[in-house]
Amino acid sequence: MIAKKVSANVAALVVALFFAFPTYWMVATALKPRKDLLSTGYDLVPFSVTGSNFATAWAKPGFLNSLGNSLLVSLSAVLAAIVVGLLAAVALSRMRFKGRKGFVMMLLVAQMAPFEALLIPMFLMMRDLDLLDRLPALALIYFAVTLPFCAWTLRGFVNGIPLELEEAAMVDGCGRWGAFRRVTLPLLGPGLVATSVFAFVTAWNEFLFALSLVKDQTKETLPVWLSGFQTQFGTDWGGAMAASALFTLPVLVFFLIVQRKMVTGVTAGAVKG
Amino acid sequence: MKGWRGLAVGAAALAVAVAGCGTSSDGGSGNSGEPKTLTVWLMDGSAPTTLTDALNKEFQDSHAGVTVKYEVQKWNGIQEKLTTALTSNNPPDVIELGNTQTAKFAAEETLTDLSGDVSGLNGDQWLGGLKDSLTWDGKQYGLPFYAANRTVVYRTDLFQAAGIAAAPKSRDEWVSAIEKLKAANAADPDFQPLYLPGQSWYVLLSFIWDEGGDVAKPQGSAWAGAVDTPQAKAGLEFYKKLVDTSGTKAPKDADEATPQQMEVFGTGKVGMMIGLPWELAGAVKANPDLKEKVGAFPIPSKTAGKTAPVFLGGSNLAVPAGSKNADLAKEYLKLLSSKKYQDMLAEGGAVPGTSTDTAKLATTPIGKALADSAPNGKVTPTTPAWAAVEAGQNPLKDMLTAYLTGAKPLDQATADANSALSKTLGG
Amino acid sequence: MTAVHTTDAAVPTDDSSAPRRAAPDGAPRRRGGAFDRALPYLLLAPAVVAILWLIGWPVLSVLVTSFRKLNLRELTRGEVVWTGLDNYAEILGDPAFWGIAVRTVVFTGLVVVVSVLAGLLIALLMRQISPVVRIALQVAMLLAWAMPLLAATTVYQWIFDQQYGILNKTLVKLGFDAFAGYSWFSTGTSTLAVIGLLITWQAVPFLAFSLYAGAIGIPKDQYEAAGIDGASAWQTFRAVTWPELRPLLLMVTFLSLLWDFKVFAQIWAMRKGGPDGGSTTLAVYQYLEGISKSHFGVAAAVSVVMVALLGLLTFQYLRRLVRSQEGEL
User: pTM of the predicted model, to two decimals?
Assistant: First the structure.
């Protein structure tokens, strides 16, 4: 039994290494001095380490500005998608009404749409709404693209919460809204978290629309800023990797905050048995 | 926060009529007598900032009420960005286009015809190769901006140590220089006398043109591939000869960008590379020790004493057809085409587009090599379909890889590439 | 029971062992007022409006565009030129098209199977390991997920680089000298294998997280009952885990299918669909034939064909879903 436990842990660590290795390689490259970038020697561990690439990335104009833009766009899109998605999820999961089937089909089919091919029509739409060159255009698009997924997934999480709990609360004198807020919402914590991490990463990494819809450089998002390391005069890969590492940090922080909540949510869920 | 209010308005409008798509131009620009804004898009790294700063200042000073909105564009994703920008209500007034892309934008009538303004734009001094690239249907759709071409960058110290007295002036001398370098550095297993990746197709163009061939030829209204000709095959054979003689360790299935050949040159284990001026600068940046040890010479021709034709990489400037300030844009281009700014371009290390005077360029070894070979510069076939060849799966690259790795014999590799080219160019 | 019982998130199957949530019927709050009847529509309204407007309209416009000639000229001038079925004739008549379609389906299928299987195994593994190792594993997976695409595609290319790649260097160090200077991108199949690995690596974290959430929702007592019977791990899996997780598995498989089928950036970044077109999928084909030539009508037609193909592939699932929805109503 113990041997089995140990081997499971070892296997898990091997898997963790596999997933972390590219990130390690990104950071290792960022730490290498430029002359070591192409080395025929065995450099699994860098021969020497420098902070100059991180300094380059940090000093490249626009980092903080585009970080702010990205946070603004991604967070508002995720927030909107979660709120609107949750409303729809509750309706789907808890209520009977005509047209339910059609709505579910719409959620699924909307996810089949080839995103890149929507660039031109979405561009024309934003042009006509006079939203070109404005961050809300991006927030709106990321919201729309993540919404079907959020609504669909949250529906599953709401389904997982026994209706009896809500009804018990209503019997105890809570209104429908009160029952939802005091019982369902807290239990949905982990689901909301998992869904929002997904939506956040999608919006955070998007490049094509961010590039095409916004030409004002003060409104660049991080992926567009990052692509600025690729110039006509070649790519500063050390700097690009250092910048990518900085770029990954907010997601990691977001997850670590949320991860605790996820565990708490699961525990709270377990308590009610 | 204007945008967020716009969003609210948009959402409200939506509530009234789903997907109501009335065009709403904000009318904030272009009113007569009002202050005007001239939007200029140049590419990242095109012109030195000293030039653009001075140019924009002079233009604003001489045009009261005009503001130049100068925006630097990134290369990554530029095609999508240009496409959408040209479609918007307020396209930029001056744009920079890669010379191999210009025909496509011209043929689709998205650019202003500048034929009538050529003489005012220093037309008699335009760089020939670039001029070809912006001519479509007999009309001029742009202004040559600047160009650069490949030269052979070499290590002067290693040449000296190997007993090579002068820069090679013919193919034979070049090959023998490779052999000498190889022999002199035989002790170092990592040494490469010449770094030449398998898919450097711009280099191949030089060799094919030098043989008198080309990659495509006009056929009726379209173009057809021409890499199955004896001349083109001779060019390929010379390419292979360089690869074999030098024993280059460069990948045969990648171009000079993966890995970046300037970084490879920067390791100090390479005798020569065929590159652009900025690649030399990048190599020196990667390895400052090389600074005093590098020189350049034009790609030698098979005819001793001549230089091989080279591909002129570069840009044109154009005025989008939808520009609301086309006349101002032309005046801006006129100022840019004047000798003062052309000299600044040359000083910055590029071959100027509208001035034949390259004195300011020829002050460095690589600048001199550049200036010597640029008049012999050529461009890829001027057809709107060519942009798709480069944007996608370039058959010339696959041809080189197949031939160099031995996956296909020469005749088959060229025949396959030829039909792929004809297919792309014909449609 | 825990809160994250997501099994019902997917299509409830005919399998009666899957627990069903309490039927809405007979709930005491059925008062039947006008507000109650309108409530579901009010709750859905924002989502419906957003999806119809922001996705439905562009999708419709893609469909319409597929019957038009829309090159740069028409686009910049706002001209409308109808060409009927020309765009479809062009792509369906392209001898290369069907080979690419088959390659796309096979590639998608393999990537989906491998990544869902890996996600499932990791999800099950996560229940067996100590909390510290579990957090390490989760953070590692999140790192994979959060890595910017530019960095991820570049790092993969470096790892597999012919001369400087750490993989070849390591293999040589381990004694496999044949890998010195081995090119992983010399054929389409081998290139697709590397791309497939990249996509799997990016997809597994989401799959593992979802399936893990589903797996911890399976009541412990069911396992205890199985354990007392002296069942083997495989038998326990068959008897308890599989039926409980099946609906969720189906759902994430469905979602993976949609996502992996449309992948473009990763394939393009590696070798632009090369060498010799050997790693070209439909998404790459769309870019080459439509977008890079600025023939947006053709690009739109490829989109429509892709969606139709996806619809065909997922038809069974959708049908079953619709049926089960009817059952629930």
Answer: 0.87
